[in-house]
Structure formats: C-alpha cells, structure tokens
Fold this sequence. Notes:
The protein is an alpha+beta fold. It has helices at residues 9-12, 40-55, 83-102, 121-137, and strands at 23-29, 59-66, 70-77, 114-118, 150-152.
Amino acid sequence: MSEREFKGSERLSRHRLSFPGVFYFVSTAKATQALPIDRLDFFQIISAEIAHMKQERLVHCLALVLMPDHLHMIIRLGAKANLSQAIKLFKGRTAHQFNQLRQNSGSVWYKGFHDKMIRSAKDLSGYLHYLRLNPVTAKLAPSPEAWPYLLINDEIYEFL
Length: 160
C-alpha cells in the first residue's frame, strides 16, 4: 500500500463518525521516505502502545497486522477520545519512540488514515479474515501464523 493510495484520506475526516464502543477497521501507511516498518522492535513499540492506550480507555485493539509499508487494525473506540484523536495520538507516540530507537528524526507514518465502521459480526469476521491473510496475499508468509507481526486478541472471537 503506497502513500498514493491514501491520497485524499484527509478529506475523509470531515465525514468521520466516532462512537465509543464501536469497532473500526483502520489502515495507515508508512511515510514515503520512512524505512520499512515490519521490524520486531517497531512491532514491540506498537504492541506496548496499544496496551497503554487500552489502559487510558482510548482504544482497545483486537487485531493488527504490521506490513512492510502499512498497518491494519481492528479497534474498539474507548470513551476518552474520538477516532481521529486516538489514531493521531497512536501514530505520534509510536513514531516518536521509533525515531528515538533509531536515533533518527522525520516522518514514520503517512499523515492520513482510512477507517471503516464495523456494523455487524459478519463485517467483523470479514475484516478479521482480510487482516489475517494480508501477509499471505502479499506473499510474505505461507500462513498467517508464520507472519511475526500479526496480533489477534482472543477477545475478538466473542464478537463473531
């Protein structure tokens, strides 16, 4: 997924709906000049940040896949922020930590993001299937379980 595919995503925020407790499928890309983001250290930063944001009651991440140039997540929006604020905070914190780790500066994430409100268990199942198979479809792994940058919270199956 390239930055071009996210072109115009800033306009989406004008019509973005944010409801606490609702599930969203969120996608964002790395910045054009950024290094590939499918790295164990960055995955650990992301995992720690989503745990922190759950404690803060901002978002609860039920699934994510980190690819070389983009990220997909299924989240449940918490009570303390709207979707745009939560994703901006997530991206800012993870970029800051990643740059500190690399002793670097500059953009890590593309500015915008795409989101889809998940309205049914059937839709949730479809997005989870897509997310799990993303590394397989991209020919990066023979199976979802073989991809080291996939996180599925067992809690998600309670909603299917």
